[in-house]
Amino acid sequence: MSDPILGMRFSVLFLAGGVVPNPLDIRFQRVSGLSAEVETEAVSEGGQNLYTQRVPRGIKYNNLVLERGMVVGSPLNLEFNAAMSLFKFATSNVLVTLLGEDRQPLAAWLFLKAYPVKWSTSDLNAEPALVIDTLELAYTRMQALRV
């Protein structure tokens, strides 16, 4: 029997235009929003009052949320800044990979045509604590990959 899979080893790669990812932009402490949901529509049948048919209408994705300690001089921060202050968007594909104890891939999720939709920084406080940036991305489609 194998041990349960832990979610503490993972990598995040921004795949934009064949450029090698910047080492500053691959380290995150938390990733969330790895989900997809089928949206349904209720359709009533004539004369049937006991139930309605639920038919699939489309796929809905949550935003991909990435958290990390604040990084100064990051190309990813420049992309987010361009989106938030100049309303200029550049999409990229994002690959999130779950790694095993031996650092070998166990599973992966590919987010296609991702772009920034929210950027926030944790509260500043006189007590010592890390400053955390939260980066939120919308995307057109998620592809779950089982390695």
From TrEMBL:
It comes from the Bacteria. GO terms for molecular function: structural molecule activity. InterPro entries: CHP02241, Phage_T4_Gp19. Pfam families: Phage_T4_gp19. Coiled coil: none annotated. This is Phage tail protein.
